[in-house]
UniProtKB/TrEMBL annotation:
ATP binds at K11, F59, R87, T93, R104, N112. Residues 1-78 are annotated as: SAW. This is Nucleoside diphosphate kinase. It is found in: Nucleus. The active site is at H115. The chain holds residues 283 to 428 of 428 of the full protein. Belongs to the NDK family. Belongs to the GRAS family. Residues 3-138 form the Nucleoside diphosphate kinase-like domain.
Length: 146
């Protein structure tokens, strides 16, 4: 397996529920390298570009409203097999998310409150969308990775 990059985003519900530290911790414990991190109020245009493959779906307007309803936490992580590992790491937060009374459609249909890229190609694409030069830094070494 190869060194990949993935885009991870704690959505507004996850920020509200205080899941940010837990998510970061899981990636750090796995030894992945943090290459981007910020709290961000997403403009509508960026949300639409990020989810453009879902544009024709009936829930698209709700999804865009939701993702722009409050700040998200954007992260980029690098590592061997990080795309597939990330989907497992963020999937395992499900029990925390399954609280009743949420306004969020996607939670009601069992979707997660953390986004993770579904392929290395989309990882690169999404990191390019969400980060600008200066808030994405991959050219440094982590001592524990040797
Ligand atoms: P994932 O978030 O697992 O990558 P996706 O890319 O298919 O799933 O969808 C992106 C987001 O769109 C998802 O996190 C929540 C929303 N969504 C997807 N399918 C939905 C549905 N059937 N009803 C409501 N929201 C949905
Ligand atoms: Mg997806």
């Amino acid at each position: 397996r190869e060194v990949e990059e993935t885009y991870i985003m704690v959505k507004p519900d996850g920020v509200q529920r205080g899941l940010v530290g837990e998510i970061i911790s899981r990636f750090e414990k796995k030894g992945f390298k943090l290459t981007g991190l910020k709290l961000f109020q997403c403009p509508k245009e960026l949300a639409e570009e990020h989810y453009k493959d879902l544009k024709s779906r009936p829930f698209f307007p709700k999804l865009i409203n939701y993702i722009t309803s409050g700040p998200v936490v954007c992260m980029a992580w690098e590592g061997v097999g990080v795309v597939a590992s990330a989907r497992k790491l963020i999937g395992s937060t499900d029990p925390l998310q399954a609280e009743p009374g949420t306004r969020r459609v996607s939670v009601q249909t069992g979707r997660n409150v953390v986004h993770g890229s579904d392929s290395p190609e989309n990882g690169k694409r999404e990191i390019g969308l969400w980060f600008k030069e200066g808030d994405y830094v991959s050219g440094y070494q982590l001592k524990h990775l040797g």
